[in-house]
Fold this sequence. Notes:
This protein is an alpha/beta fold. α2 (43-52) packs parallel to α9 (247-262). Helix content is 44%, strand content 21%. The strands form four sheets. A five-stranded parallel β-sheet has the order 5-1-13-14-15, with no helix packed on it. The protein folds into two domains: 2-98 and 184-262, HAD superfamily/HAD-like (Rossmann fold, 3-Layer(aba) Sandwich); 114-180, Alpha-Beta Plaits, CATH 3.30.70. The model has no long low-confidence stretch (mean pLDDT 88). Residues 2-223 form the Sucrose phosphatase-like domain. This is Hydroxymethylpyrimidine pyrophosphatase-like HAD family hydrolase. Pfam families: S6PP.
Amino acid sequence: MIFAxxxxxxxxxxxxxxxxxxxxxxxxxxxxxTKLHRSYMSKLSYQLIKELNTKITIIPITTRxxxxxxxxxxxxxxxxESHYVTSNGAVVIKNGKRDTEWDQILLEKMSQxxxxxxxxxxxxxxxxxxxxxxxxxxEHLYFCLTFKKANDIDLIVTILAEIEAMGWEHYTHRNxxxxxxxxxxxxxxxxxxxxxTRETISWAAGDSRxxxxxxxxxxxxxxxxxxxxALHMDESSRxxxxxxxxxxxxxxxxxxxxxEVFLGSSLAEAINLQVRNKEVLNANxxxxxxxxxxxxxxxxxxxxxxxxx
Length: 309
């Protein structure tokens, strides 16, 4: 059984994200520390993942680059004995080594694409030379853009329209825009891993549009209430929006999976059903009590009325 999960703003949260959710750094576990970046998990989330990792296959799938991923100090994301995916699906790591077969698949797809990396690179170079954008070139497969004048909407619209005309896609993440060929998706990477391992993707979790491709492959997908995907999704038995946001949403997701893994899905559902039935029973009892009180009150009123007559 596979649990495929995004990381940032799904299970781990930066210092900036914590301030959004009015969460202090106290009682949290720091999982990343550099001069510029710090990220955290709640103690409960950390412990739950540690326990789940003994029973199921956890596959992190992140937009972080390989180097950014390896800044994370989360030892039970077993980096030497399992898979993980970085760079939005551009890099698949297996048993601590880069999967060169996957590299070859992507290079072949790029070579067959009508407007390959070099074509889009040429377009972006034009604007880069005009000193209006900064361009990160990643894995010779995709780009990350930062506009120097973020309020120049006309320029942004013009550049993105040219990118779309080449058949490439773009995703906005805060002040950055990722420019990605349509075949470079997290979902394609996890589909490749699934074919190799022959395991079922039982659960998945992610917060952004860039996560949709792999969430759609899972038997059950969790979307944090604070994520952009939550604004556009319809809830069902397969697509579950958390009741909470931020660190609590991560705990809610992991607790749900923990119950199903360690208690069994049927037992977990039975417990949930028992709780729901108890709530209904209490509601019915309260209703009956109120009704009896109302009837008694009416009888009392009637008897008093007869005596007065």
